[in-house]
């Protein structure tokens, strides 16, 4: 309970609308509109839910469900970038992907084969309770392996640890909008971490 109070106090001091709830252990709650949170408020929510995300994704035994946290973070904090059902997103890049991805280039991007991006997600429901969303995954395949999808394999892990069942076209039809960036969407500029 002390940890929950500390989160609430830190968020309150920063002017964020974060509160805690006694009705369930490990419940993260946002009072008000989650999109009005400042950096400290978003970080407080992320600190509250980040361990729950890894635990949820790991339930199915997929090794990526825990390995991704040792990869390079691409942002200073989660942010809502528009797609992915208006969820807060935090992206991690494996060693193969990190150098190129962290350049955040607008054109001529070609990610190396074996690049993997893992995008955590969470969202507050109408009552302000923050829920773990899917872990979205993008894996760069060898040239010609999936030419209709830019040689990307789109996938994910649900909060129950099971594979996310999605059509490749569902993801790629949005990502193709960033064709010059090898179908990569980046975190919001104000939260990006540079490779330099």
TrEMBL record:
Residues 67-183 form the Cytochrome P460 domain. Keywords: Signal. Transmembrane segments: none annotated. Coiled coil: none annotated. The keyword Signal applies. Residues 1-24 form the signal peptide. InterPro entries: Cytochrome_P460, Cytochrome_P460_sp. This is Recombinase.
């Amino acid at each position: 309970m002390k940890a929950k109070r500390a989160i609430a106090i830190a968020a309150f001091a920063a002017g964020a609308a974060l509160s805690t709830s006694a009705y369930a252990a490990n419940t993260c709650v946002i009072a008000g509109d989650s999109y009005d949170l400042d950096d400290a408020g978003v970080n407080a929510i992320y600190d509250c839910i980040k361990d729950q995300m890894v635990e949820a994704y790991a339930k199915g035994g997929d090794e990526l469900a825990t390995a991704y946290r040792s990869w390079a973070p691409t942002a200073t904090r989660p942010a809502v970038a528009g797609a992915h059902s208006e969820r807060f997103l935090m992206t991690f890049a494996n060693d193969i992907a990190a150098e190129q991805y962290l350049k955040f280039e607008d054109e001529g991007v070609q990610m190396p084969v074996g690049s993997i991006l893992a995008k955590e997600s969470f969202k507050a429901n109408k009552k302000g309770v923050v829920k773990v969303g899917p872990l979205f995954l993008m894996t760069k395949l060898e040239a010609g392996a999936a030419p209709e999808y830019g040689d990307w394999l789109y996938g994910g892990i649900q909060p129950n640890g099971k594979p996310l069942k999605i059509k490749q076209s569902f993801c790629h039809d949005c990502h193709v909008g960033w064709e010059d960036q090898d179908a990569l969407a980046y975190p919001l500029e104000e939260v990006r971490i540079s490779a330099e």
